[in-house]
Amino acid sequence: MKKILPIITVLVILSLLGIIFFQVVWTLQVYKDKETSIQQTINMVAFSVARDLVDEHAQQSPFRGKRNTDLLFPLNLFSNSIASQYTPEQLRKKIEHTFKKYGIRDMHFEFAISSSSMIGDQLESKKFYENYIDTLHNTNVVIPLTQPSGSYNEGLMPEEFLYIVLPNKNINQIAWRQMTWMVFGSVLFIAIIFTAFYITIRALLNQKKLSEIKTDFINNMTHEFKTPLATISLAVDALKNDKVIMDKQKIDYFSGIIKDENKRMNKQVESILQAALLEKEEMKLELKPAHAHDMIKSALNNIRLPLEEKGGKLIANLDAKNDFILADEVNFTNIINNLLDNAVKYSKENPVIKISTSNANNTLRIKIEDNGIGMNKETLQRIFEKFYRAHTGNIHNVKGFGLGLSYVKSIVDAHQGKIKADSIPGKGSSFTLEFKTEKKAEQE
What we know:
Number of helices: 12
Order of helices and strands: HHEEHEEHHHHEHEEHEEHHEEH
Helix content: 40-55%
Oligomer: single chain
Strand content: 15-25%
Distance between the termini: 60 Å
Largest sheet: 5 strands, mixed
Shape: elongated
C-alpha cells in the first residue's frame, strides 16, 4: 500500500490535469468557431440591410425624394440618395431588427451611409467616426449600396456605402454567452471528475490509516494479553512446586497474582466490548439525577494509590455550587477514571494532577490538568479517534488499546455534554468537560 498509493496519486493528478488541459483547448477552439460564426452572421446582417435599403430606394420615384424640390435642375437628381431617405433613428431600428432576425440581441454598433464622392448626402450615428478610426478595438463592415441594373438612378447617382462598426468586446461577450451551457457543462464535468478522484484518494488514505490502526491494535492486544498470560503461567508453575504447596502463605500470594492478572485481562476485554457496543449504538445509558462531586470523589479514590506509587500529588478543588446533573453513574465515573488514569500514565516523575469544578451559564464545568509529557497539534486533533495512541517518546510503559479517550468522547456525547482538550508539549495537558445542570432545589 505504501508503494502503490503514491503511484496512484500521481496518475490521478496527471489524468485530471490532462482532462482539464484538453477541455480548455476544446473550449477555446469552440470559442474561436463561435467568433467566426458571429462574424459571418454580422456580414449577412450588413448585406441584408444593404439589400433592403437599395430595394426600398429603387421602389421610390426619384422625383419624390425629400430634398427634390427643384425639378427644373437635373442636378437635383443627385440629392435623391439613399442617405437622404432615412433619419439616423430609422436606420438604427432597421439594423437592430435585422440583427434580431438573425438571432443576435443586444449588439452595440455605430453606423453610417456615405458616398465615395463629394456629391450626395451623409448619414451617420453620433459616435460613428471615433469608433470607425479605432480599428484596434472595433470591427468595421463596409457594404456598397449598388443600384440595381436598369434602375432610373443607375449611372446617375454617386456610389454609396453602408458602414457598420461593432465593438470587439461586444462580439466576444455574445460568443461567450452562446457558449454558456457548454462552458458550464465542461466545468461541471471537471468538478465531478475531481470530486470522484478526491473521494478515491481519500478512501485509499482511510484504508491505509485503518490498516495501520489494525496493525497497532493487534500489536497492542498481543502485548496486553501476553504479559498477564505469562505471569499467570509462572504463578501456576510456582503452585506446582512442592515447597509452595506446603506453604499456605505462598499459595495465597500466587493465587492472588493469578486473580489480579485475570481481572486485568477481563478489564481489557470489557473495554473492547464497550467500544463495539458504542460503535453499534447499542449501549443504553441509565440517566438519573446525581451529584457529580460524589462520582468524582469515587474516581479520586481509585487513582490515589497509583499516583502515590509515582510520588505524585493530587489537588482537588470541587468548588461548583450546583453539581446536580443527569448522569449514568457507572459510565460517568468511568470517564473521570479514564482521564485521571491517562494523566498518571503520561506523566513524568512526581506528577501533579489538578481537578476542579465550577458553574457557568447553567452548566457544570470539570477541568482535569496534569504536568505530563503533553501533546503536539497532530496528536491533539486525533486523540478522540478509536484505537489512536499518541507517541510517547522514551516512555515505554504506557499500555492500552487506544480506546480510552474514544470511549470518553462517546459517553460525554451521550450525556449531551462537551469535552475539550488543550496541551503544550513538555508542559502538560488539560481536559475540560461541560454538562448541563439540573435544578438542585426541586430535585432534593
